[in-house]
Design goal:
Blueprint: E1 4-6, E2 9-10, H1 11-33, H2 54-57, E3 62-65, E4 72-75, E5 88-90, E6 99-101, E7 132-134, E8 154-156, E9 162-172, E10 177-184, E11 189-193, E12 198-200, E13 205-207, H3 230-246, H4 249-252
Parallel strand pairs: 8-13
Antiparallel strand pairs: 1-2, 3-4, 5-6, 7-9, 8-9, 9-10, 10-11, 12-13
């Protein structure tokens, strides 16, 4: 059946043109939204700031109200977030050259050890309480009897040396899982992500292939008592995650 509106214009043509206009509007909307973070761009060789793209490609400012009285955040940030990494430099002069660390690669904030400037307050559950806390201070929480209790177990690092002893377990009360193992190195307390740990009940050991025993000394510290902030979590995860590339010189070199 052919429905004609006027001479030369029918319903099919109207629908096709409407689709083209909708798709064009969708592309413009998505380009505006994806420019909320990371703009303006910086030219790799000259350092000159690129244009933000004008009205069509620049997103309007949005404000987001945070729960539990933590104020509001706006996007785009208009460059308010730090973009310089003091411990990093370009490995060569050409555009696209990778950035490499200049000091301790596990804390320089480069590659797998990179971290974001997250909020310096703890992650909260639905009731507004810190969700990641030590098991020793979490009332009503306990380990399943069939599972190994790693407290008191020896921590063996990537180089096969003893890094310390597990002194406590940090749990996620919302997700009901272990997030970190607290390691007593003798000189300080260090949080090690459970995701880089392997627990052996038979040998009463916790093994990690992330970093060496000596590198536990420089692991990010936790300032608060029985609480870890989002920023501190970011630093801890970056430090141990970066070890899979930066723990030893052999790991950071190409295979061929």
């Amino acid at each position: 059946m052919h429905l004609q509106v006027t001479h030369g214009i029918d319903v099919a043509l109207i629908v096709l043109n409407a689709f083209f206009l909708f798709f064009l509007g969708l592309v413009v909307y998505l380009r505006r939204e994806d420019r909320r973070e990371g703009y303006p761009l910086e030219h790799e060789l000259t350092g000159r700031l690129e244009s933000e793209g004008g009205l069509i490609l620049t997103a309007p400012t949005k404000s987001f109200k945070l729960p539990f009285g933590h104020g509001t955040v706006t996007a785009p940030t208009k460059g308010r977030e730090p973009v310089q990494v003091p411990g990093a430099r370009k490995s060569d002069w050409f555009a696209g050259a990778p950035i490499e660390p200049t000091g301790n690669p596990l804390v320089d904030g480069v590659g797998p050890a990179a971290f974001a400037e997250r909020a310096k307050r703890p992650d909260l559950d639905w009731e507004g309480h810190p969700r990641i806390v030590p098991l020793s201070s979490a009332e009503g929480f306990f380990l399943e009897r069939k599972d190994a209790d790693p407290r008191g177990y020896t921590v063996v690092a990537y180089d096969g040396k003893k890094a310390g002893t597990v002194s406590d377990i940090w749990i996620d009360k919302a997700d009901r899982m272990i997030r970190y193992l607290q390691v007593d190195t003798g000189a300080r307390q260090v949080l090690m992500p459970m995701t880089v740990s392997s627990v052996s009940r038979a040998g009463q050991t916790v093994t990690t292939t992330s970093i060496t025993a000596a590198q536990f000394a420089d692991a990010p510290a936790i300032e608060g008592a029985n609480v870890i902030t989002l920023y501190e979590e970011e630093r801890v995860q970056a430090y141990f995650g970066g070890g899979y590339l930066y723990a030893t010189a052999a790991r950071s070199e190409p295979l061929i």
